[in-house]
């Protein structure tokens, strides 16, 4: 068991070193879409449903390290990986890899623009390239998700969901009255408007 733990730790340190070697002074996100290294197996790393990152079952307490790993996250065929130019390792994600924890309202030439901050301090503007989707929750309500980049999503907190509901409106979508929110010139439908009215 000790040997396996040591090997995993070396794998974690190797990921960090490989990423720093690849882009020691790079600003912005690494070009993970351009990296296609060999798959090196699964790492004992998990992102919990509340956005907490775990390594060997223990929460990673260094925000800077979590931030670093979040920049090399990639999703392929429904699975999540950490990718560097030299290796790709699989990790487990309980729900979505990010959490949207703050929202601010702005305006641009398209009108209202909702901007969300994730738990790793990325700001994402909700528009046609970064969409909102709403899924049925276990309690009968809805859980919103925001597309952060590529096929990576952030679960929107319950408090922000209520803010979205408060600012929601009805519009006809494909001949049906729908309840939803507008951002970046797009309308994101939450649910059938009649169902929403019946629940109020």
Properties at a glance:
200 residues; alpha+beta; 6-stranded mixed sheet; 4 helices; elongated; disordered N terminus
Strand content: 35-45%
Order of helices and strands: HEEEHEEEEEEEEEHEEEH
Helix content: 10-25%
**Global mean pLDDT:** 88
Uncertain stretches of 5 or more adjacent residues: 1-9
Shape: elongated
Q: Please tally the β strands and state the result.
A: 15
Helix/sheet category? alpha+beta
The major sheet is characterized as:
6 strands, mixed
Distance between the ends: 55 Å
The neighbouring-strand order within the major sheet is 3-2-1-6-5-4
User: With helices defined by DSSP (H or I, 4 residues minimum), what is the helix count?
Assistant: 4
Kindly provide the radius of gyration, computed on alpha-carbon positions and rounded to a whole number of angstroms.
19 Å
Explain what the structure shows:
There is one protein chain. The protein is α+β, with helices and mostly antiparallel strands and 200 residues long. Helices cover 22% and strands 44% of the residues. It has four helices and 15 strands. A six-stranded mixed β-sheet has the order 3-2-1-6-5-4. The chain is elongated, with a radius of gyration of 19 Å. The termini are far apart.
Question: Could you give the topology of this structure?
Answer:
Blueprint: H1 2-22, E1 39-47, E2 53-55, E3 58-59, H2 63-70, E4 73-76, E5 79-83, E6 88-93, E7 98-108, E8 111-118, E9 123-125, E10 132-136, E11 142-149, E12 152-156, H3 158-166, E13 169-173, E14 176-183, E15 186-192, H4 193-199
Parallel strand pairs: 1-6, 7-12
Antiparallel strand pairs: 1-2, 2-3, 4-5, 5-6, 7-8, 8-9, 10-11, 11-12, 13-14, 14-15
């Amino acid at each position: 068991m000790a040997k396996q733990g040591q090997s995993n730790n070396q794998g974690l340190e190797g990921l960090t070193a490989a990423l720093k070697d690849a882009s020691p002074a790079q600003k912005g996100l690494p070009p993970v879409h351009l990296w296609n290294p060999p798959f090196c197996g699964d790492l004992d790393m998990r992102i919990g449903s509340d956005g907490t990152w775990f390594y060997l079952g223990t929460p990673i307490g260094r925000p800077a390290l979590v931030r670093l790993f979040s920049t090399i996250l990639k999703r392929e065929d429904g699975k999540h990986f950490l990718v560097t130019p030299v290796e790709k390792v699989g990790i487990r994600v309980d729900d979505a890899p990010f959490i949207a924890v703050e929202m601010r309202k702005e305006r641009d030439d398209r009108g209202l623009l909702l901007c969300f901050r994730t738990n790793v301090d990325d700001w994402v503007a909700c528009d046609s390239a970064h969409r909102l989707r709403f899924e049925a929750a276990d309690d009968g309500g809805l859980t919103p998700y925001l597309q952060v980049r590529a096929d990576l999503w952030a679960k929107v907190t319950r408090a922000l969901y209520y803010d979205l509901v408060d600012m929601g409106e009805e519009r006809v979508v494909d001949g049906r009255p729908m309840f939803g929110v507008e951002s970046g010139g797009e309308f994101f439908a939450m649910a059938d408007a009649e169902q929403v009215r019946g629940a109020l």
